[in-house]
Design goal:
- The structure is a single chain.
- About 50% of the residues are buried.
- Strand 2 and strand 3 (about 115-125) form a beta hairpin.
- By secondary structure, the protein is α/β, with parallel strands linked by helices.
- The strands form 5 sheets. Strands 11-12-10-13-14-9-15 form a 7-stranded parallel beta sheet, with helices on both faces. A 6-stranded parallel beta sheet has the order 16-21-20-17-19-18, with helices on both faces. Strands 2-3-4-6-5 form a 5-stranded mixed barrel.
- It is built from 23 helices and 23 strands.
- The chain has 4 domains: about 20-80 and about 190-270, no CATH class; about 85-185, OB fold (Dihydrolipoamide Acetyltransferase, E2P) (Beta Barrel); about 295-325 and about 340-465, 3-Layer(aba) Sandwich (Rossmann fold); about 495-655, P-loop containing nucleotide triphosphate hydrolases (Rossmann fold, 3-Layer(aba) Sandwich), CATH 3.40.50.
- The longest helix is centred in the middle third of the chain and has 32 residues, at about 255-285.
- Helix 7 packs across helix 8 (about 255-285), helix 10 packs parallel to helix 11 and helix 20 packs antiparallel against helix 21 (about 660-670).
- The protein is globular and about 95 Å long.
- It starts with about 20 loop residues before the first helix and ends with a helix.
């Protein structure tokens, strides 16, 4: 096991501006204290029943959705600290996470120049009781002096760094050497917290629930295992209680993977069952309007376009046209690289819907994207096309009333909007086609609510995120797929370079030269705030402050990230798109954004922390105009990363497209790296599975088992499937997706 385990190394998936398919994940976050259990057990007890959890702590835990011991057990680690490397105190290695045992020597406390309390402990070597030359220091932890006494043998875990000529452990985890290993000397779990909740306390409570304590049996053993034993045995899966134990406090790296694989299997199987049942239900109870238009009219619309459709656009439109001409409601995903022309295909489908006497709605994830789509449709519908209006939260009250009346009366043909289209009070006379752009950014509940605005409208989802074939055959099994492989003529190739951080001293002056010539630039980081993690991953806030006071001082530079209010984010993007800013320092919130033709430079810091599909999406933010564009991927792993090498790889004289990169990403990461992450602190995420990064074997196995189960028991009525039925029911009930 490598030192300093990161989520990426353990397969937790890469960070994204907003994680994809959150609602499905949260929907299956059923704890043993709810629908998956019939009888009352210790899992139902309030969390205060655990030693050390008082009323104040319970209120903090409630902010995380933790009310019972069962809830606590399903609060899974977001990552792990590898403190399993145990070394004698005189043999510690600088810049490595490790554990050592030492005897407490002199303990001193003093105030620093900044007023912080610094506790410093001299560490003696247990072998000879003499000073080891290593010290341990803590800021603000005055309890260290009270809890540990001189001469006591302690165990410390953390990173050793040079301080002058001596090694120093800064803010290490510490326990008495004869205490059970909870915070040191093992793979240590790290959990999502809330303000006021201490990590050590949460870890201790979970250790008690998982491992038990004096005169207390482990509560985790009471978690019921609802998976049919035949499936568990055939797939060689751990029993659920054992899997939970290994996920919280892994005995080895291999057992951790086994534990997480079991949890991931349960999640995916529930999802596969639900999706298969939903598709069967939709098709059985079809009420979709038949949307058709004369061939002559369709030819005229296509000929009137200001450009020629690609072969891929013709093929995708033909598939969509065939779908909407039937009474079975269309459920189709239109997948195409950035700039492949998905909006035009959707616009042609909308014209057919209107020609057939119904209405069409297009929903985008942000107001800026909705405005961009509205401008595009207005241009495409200029010559005698459907009436189209924009409905977002920014629309004035009089305009809103007029738009709502037009939709209800049927005088308005097409509406473009954001989530505002799914709120109460927005009704359609006859919604025939619902188009959801960048569909992974909408929860399933929002998409379904939009669908319910019509009798049963046809649904077209679009995405620029390349989806590996494995996933389209499993996770997206309730959708038919159309793919736009080609880019419109005239699109400039983006030059991509991979550089080490030392090269930034030359990158920033080069970027200034581009700005001086009238260009704009994106700088993207994997993290919002440096406080979001314990490593030194580049953060947007730090990078913004450093550059505006340093290398890029004097340029018009702004900050953009997902924790900013939506209106503030939109204002920044509008300013950037309008040429009022030179440089935008952002997180992956810009992964899906409006076109900025003047943006020709993309610098991605900490590039090794992103997946290939995400890097490709970010790179696609530039090169939208006529100028040659350049993407610079900055990483400590430059020259040694298969993923980054793929970003500059060429095939037949051309760089790999998004689809090839998505498959390559899956190939590189392989079967072990299918695990999700919750580093954003956003709760609506699958506990284990990252749907962008699913182990193909796991996806295939759960699909096979779901098909076999439903073939023998379509409604999951058999007793052995009762637990699965409750899990699927919970998925739909939570998000009103039945």
């Amino acid at each position: 096991m490598p030192n300093g385990v990161t989520p990426r190394r353990l397969g937790f998936g890469r960070r994204s501006p907003a994680s994809r398919w959150r609602s499905w994940m949260a929907a299956s976050r059923t704890t043993p204290s709810s629908s998956l259990r019939n009888s009352s057990t210790s899992l139902d007890l309030k969390v205060e029943a655990l030693p050390g959890v008082g009323d104040g702590s319970a209120k903090l835990l409630e902010r995380l959705g933790i009310r019972t011991i069962g809830d606590l057990l399903w609060h899974l680690p977001t990552r792990y600290l590898d403190y399993a490397d145990i070394r004698p105190v005189r043999h510690l290695i600088a810049e490595r996470e490790q554990t050592t045992e030492a005897i407490v020597g002199a303990i001193g406390q003093r105030r620093t120049a900044r007023g912080q309390m610094l506790t410093e402990v001299e560490l003696l070597d247990p072998a000879d009781m003499r000073p080891s030359g290593v010290k341990a220091t803590w800021f603000g932890r005055q309890f260290i002096k009270e809890r540990f006494r001189e001469g006591q043998l302690i165990r410390l875990s953390g990173k050793a760094t040079w301080f002058g000529r001596s090694l120093q452990l800064s803010n290490p985890q510490v326990e008495a050497a004869d205490a059970e290993r909870v915070h040191t000397g093992r793979m240590v779990p790290v959990y999502r917290l809330t303000e006021g909740l201490k990590e050590g306390h949460l870890r201790r409570w979970l250790h008690t629930a998982v491992e038990g304590g004096p005169k207390r049996s482990p509560v985790v053993t009471e978690v019921p295992d609802e998976l049919p034993p035949a499936i568990r045995d055939r797939r060689e899966l751990l029993p659920l209680p054992e899997a939970l134990k290994e996920v919280h406090f892994p005995s080895t790296d291999a057992r951790l993977i086994e534990g997480r694989r079991r949890l991931a299997f349960d999640e995916l199987l529930t999802l596969q069952l639900g999706l298969a049942q939903r598709r069967a239900r939709w098709q059985k109870n079809a009420k979709a309007p038949t949307l058709t238009a004369p061939d002559a009219d369709v030819r005229r619309w296509i000929e009137a376009l200001p450009f020629t459709l690609t072969d891929g656009q013709h093929a995708a439109f033909a598939e969509i046209r065939a779908d909407i001409g039937r009474t079975i409601p269309m459920s189709r995903l239109l997948e195409g690289d950035v700039g492949s022309g998905k909006t035009v295909v959707a616009a042609l489908a909308a014209r057919i819907a209107v020609a057939a006497g119904t209405q069409a709605a297009l929903m985008a994830p942000t107001e800026l994207l909705a405005e961009q789509h509205f401008r595009t449709l207005t241009l495409l519908f200029a010559e005698g096309g459907p009436a189209v209006r924009l409905l977002t939260s920014s629309v004035s009250a009089p305009d809103r009333r007029e738009i709502l009346a037009g939709l209800a009366e049927g005088t308005l043909d097409v509406v473009v909007g954001t989530h505002a289209l799914v709120v109460e009070g927005v009704t359609f006379k006859t919604l025939g086609l619902a188009v959801v752009d960048e569909q992974h950014r909408f929860g399933v509940r929002q998409r379904t609510t939009l669908r319910e605005k019509g009798v049963d409208p046809h649904l077209l989802l679009t995405t620029a995120t390349p989806i590996p074939r494995t996933l389209t055959q499993t996770i997206y099994r309730d959708l038919d797929l159309s793919v736009l492989q080609e880019l419109p003529a005239g699109r400039q190739e983006i030059r991509t370079e991979v550089r080490k951080p030392e090269a930034l001293a030359k990158v920033w002056p080069w970027l200034r030269e581009h700005v001086a010539s009238g260009d704009q630039a994106f700088i993207v980081t994997p993290r919002i705030d440096p406080a979001d993690g314990e490593d030194d991953a580049p953060s947007a806030i730090d990078t913004y402050e450093e550059l505006r006071h340093g290398a890029l001082k004097g340029l018009r530079i702004a900050l953009l990230h997902g924790r900013m209010p939506a209106k503030e984010r939109d204002a920044v993007m509008r300013a950037f798109a309008g040429g009022e800013l030179d440089v935008l320092v952002a997180t992956t919130v810009v992964e899906v954004g409006i076109d900025v033709p003047n943006a020709t430079v993309m610098v991605i810091l900490g590039a090794e922390r992103f997946g290939l599909a995400q890097l490709h999406q970010l790179r696609g933010r530039i090169g939208r105009g006529e100028k040659r564009s350049v993407a610079v991927l900055v990483s400590d792993e430059a020259g040694g990363s298969e993923r980054l090498a793929a970003m500059v790889e060429r095939k037949d004289g051309k760089p790999l497209d998004g689809f090839a990169l998505a498959q390559r990403d899956l190939d590189i990461r392989g079967a072990g790296e299918f695990l999700g992450d919750e580093q954003s602190g956003l709760g609506e995420e699958l506990r284990i599975v990252d749907l962008r990064d699913v182990d193909p074997r796991l996806a295939r196995e759960t699909a096979e088992d779901a098909d076999a189960i439903l073939a023998a028991d379509p409604t999951l009525e058999k007793p052995e499937h009762a637990g699965l039925a409750r899990a699927v029911e919970a998925l739909w009930r939570r998000y009103a997706l039945a």
